[in-house]
Write a structure and sequence with these properties.
By secondary structure, this protein is mostly helical. The chain has 3 helices and no strands. It is elongated, with a radius of gyration of 20 Å.
Length: about 80
């Protein structure tokens, strides 16, 4: 594991990070910073790392699917004589 229990103890994830992270994935704006953003979120750093690694894996899979569909479409249009 790259993030150890001692890392979890030494480095906290605050509420502001969680708000910004969630807003980025939702495509929204987290809004202005608030004093409460400095509070601990109660989420271990190791969990953030695991979640981010999972999300990156899923994004790469979607990318490969999108490229596959584009290649399929290009071959289909070439075979039928239809151009984009």
């Amino acid at each position: 594991m790259y993030v150890t229990a001692s890392d979890d103890a030494a480095y906290g994830v605050n509420v502001g990070f969680v708000r910004a992270y969630n807003a980025a994935w939702a495509g929204g704006d987290p809004g202005p910073a608030a004093e409460s953003d400095r509070e601990p979120a109660g989420i271990p750093l190791s969990e953030v790392a695991e979640t981010d690694a999972f999300n990156a894996t899923v994004c790469r899979a979607w990318r490969e699917q999108a490229f596959g569909w584009r290649e399929y479409y290009d071959k289909l249009t070439a075979a039928t004589g239809n151009a984009r």
